[in-house]
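Subject: Re: docking follow-up (flavin-adenine dinucleotide)

Dear J.,

Thanks for your patience while I sorted out the input files. As discussed at Tuesday's group meeting, I've set up the holo structure prediction with flavin-adenine dinucleotide included as the bound ligand rather than trying to dock it afterwards. The sequence and the ligand SMILES I used are pasted below, so you can double-check that they match what you have on your end before we go further.
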Amino acid sequence: MTHDIENLPVAVIGAGPIGLSVAVNLLDAGLTPIILESGDRAGSNIANWGHVRMFSPWSYNMDPIAVSWLKETEWVEPVLSEFPTGSELLERYVLPLASHEWVAPHLRLNTRVNSVSRQHHDVLRSEGRDSAPFVVRVSRPEGERDMVVQAVVDASGTYQTPNWLGAHGIPAIGEVAASQSISYGVPNILGSARQRYAGKSVLVVGGGHSAFNALQDLVALADQFDGMRIFWGIRGASVDNIVRSPEADELQERRRLEVYIQELLNTGRIEVFTNIAIDKISLEDSRLVVESRAQQLPPVDQIIAATGFRPDLQLLSELRTSLDPATESPVRLGPLIDPNLHSCGSVPEHGSAELSHPESGLYIVGIKSYGRAPTFLLRTGYKQVKSIVADLVNPEKKESAVEHRGSSCETLVNSGCCPM
Ligand SMILES: Cc1cc2nc3c(=O)[nH]c(=O)nc-3n(C[C@H](O)[C@H](O)[C@H](O)COP(=O)(O)OP(=O)(O)OC[C@H]3O[C@@H](n4cnc5c(N)ncnc54)[C@H](O)[C@@H]3O)c2cc1C
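The structure tokens for the complex came back this morning:
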């Protein structure tokens, strides 16, 4: 890197908890971040699942340096052993951190990153590549502009790109046409989306904790409104493994939810369809008819697609990334988190070496670094950030937590199944 490039800021894409952690750690190390956030406030993705109670306690959800900064303000520290909702995480941590006097001047809201490239280099051109700064193309209300930066840390999350319902990873036939009656992610069933589901027949698709949350809330709604039917479609052949977390799981909120869903199944509050692989969704008399393999499911009014998320890689397509073909995470991280290889297993700690790409100065962190794998937890992300920032300060010395600390796993942070 030339001296001039070193004086440029580091672009951080996304002001979620991990993007803000990157900014704090960069500032702490004497580097200058510029945080580019598409929403009109920090933590915009979390706002979409604010009603969901988190599995991890406050002590795992905050960056230690950020906490030390906030403690020097009027901030009231949450009780570390309690489990916040997404809204509480936003109101009590993310937003105070974003408005901290050392962070706020570096934050640009309503600024969507559309693409990133290397100055005067398309992806094909090698000569002088490593010494060229990055160009970040952003769109703001007043128009598009380019920013020139020394490095790029992509912490833009995955919440805005949910997976399809279709069995083959592409939309089921008719899925896009039926999208008005399909919710992707974790709708606020007992709050803002109440009228959408009250008294209706609803199919929840997906086998993870997002589906559990939706089922829990639908049952609570059905206690208040007559005539509801709740269907659950899962890919697996049985519902034998609902209670997956160990009894002494430190993420007790996760275990509680699993036990509750098992009870709901035992008492017949939820009608289950196994071996679901959705081929086609048709609209008949304003209801949705789902075809899965040769089976036709009962017509429903609404579908909730709790089928996970995938990373938006388009904005990095002019850079030399190296991604695991299955998980779409950085290639060395892929085998550590691939759900085909680890069923609810532990994930070894990992550092900047596992998160780097052939494009020097580029990192994907936070939940986006896990690509399609559903097991990311914030505490893992804060460790990623520490390692990446150390790397940006001293690029010669890449940190590999796996190599340095062996393959010992962090039991609490990574002990369980997907948080989503
Ligand atoms: C329902 C649910 C429950 C979860 N529960 C837990 C839990 O209990 N414990 C836990 O540790 N983890 C949990 N997670 C997982 C994870 O910790 C969270 O998703 C967390 O928000 C990830 O933080 P992040 O900063 O990586 O991404 P995000 O919080 O998603 O932040 C990404 C930010 O980037 C912005 N952005 C997106 N695209 C662009 C762009 N092109 N340009 C500029 N900005 C952009 C977004 O607006 C957003 O503000 C949960 C996730 C979900 C969905």
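A couple of observations from a first look. The chain has two domains: 3-160+309-414, 179-305. The pocket of flavin-adenine dinucleotide is lined by residues 13-19, 36-39, 43-46, 49, 52, 54-56, 61, 112-113, 155-157, 159-160, 186, 210, 315, 366-367, 376-378, 381, 419-420 (CB under 6 Å).

Let me know if you'd like me to rerun anything.

Best regards,
T.
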